[in-house]
Prior knowledge:
The chain has helices at 45-57, 89-92, 109-114, 120-130; strands at 2-11, 14-19, 32-33, 36-38, 66-71, 79-86, 103-108. It has one domain (2-130): Nucleoside Triphosphate Pyrophosphohydrolase. It is an alpha+beta fold. Strands 1, 2, 3, 4, 5, 6 and 7 form a 7-stranded mixed sheet that branches. Helix content is 25%, strand content 30%. A hairpin with a 2-residue loop joins strand 1 (2-11) and strand 2. The longest helix has 13 residues, at 45-57.
Amino acid sequence: xxxxxxxxxxxxxxxxxxxxxxxxxxxxxxxxxxxxxxxxxxxxxxxxxxxxxxxxxxxxxxxxxxxxxxxxxxxxxxxxxxxxxxxxxxxxxxxxxxxxxxxxxxxxxxxxxxxxxxxxxxxxxxxxxxxxxxxxx
Length: 137
């Protein structure tokens, strides 16, 4: 069983990130988050991912270059899926903030990897991918 999915959408040295809402009690409030989210009943990992990306930043039709099964930060006994996609600038131009979060941007990877406002476990997933570390599924 898996809980949810996240994706690193990479383009020319940048990564797509969403600034989470700053609501009391919200997990990772006011932090930079990768697109993706929780599984709905009956969804496979890629279905969850594509639905969440469409809702959050309004794009579809991207390819997937790598997939990793990770322990969930919500429940280490369950899994989360981490996807990676290298996208073209024309797809970036179609991105827009959906109905979740305060802001969206393509953040330079160097800033992403150093920014304390980025969710830590996601930053590590991206760093491991970039370093060629991790088990690909």
